[in-house]
Amino acid sequence: MDNIAAAAEATGPYANIVYGSDPPANGICMIESAGGPQDTYIDKGMMVRLPIVLNGKHSDQQTVLNDLTAIHEALTRRTDYSDLGTTNIQLVNIESMSLPAIIGREQNNQWICGSTLVAHFYWSK
What is the reported pTM? Predict the structure, then answer.
C-alpha cells in the first residue's frame, strides 16, 4: 500500500496522501477496503483483488476532482507495476472501480470527492 500511495503522490497532487478514509481539510487519503483472494494456486500462492478507497477534500471543487482523476489515470495506465511490489507480492494491475466524483459539500465549504481503485496482485508463499 505504501508503494501505491507513493506512486499516487508522484503525480503532484495538492496535498500529501494520508492513510485513512476521511481526508483532512484540503487533503487526500487512501485506505485498503475489504478484499481477498480470488484464486489460490499451488505454485504461486493467491491472486488477490484489493479495493483501495481514494478520497479528497478541497475548498475548490475542480481542484479535488482534477487531482484524484490524475491519480486514477497515472495508476491505471501504467504498463509496468514491478516497482510497486515486494519480494512476496507481484502487483499486476490497478484499475478504477469507481471514478472520482463529488459526493457533497461540508459545512466548512470543503468539497468531498470519492473514488475507488482496485489492485490485483499475486501473493506468493
Answer: 0.89
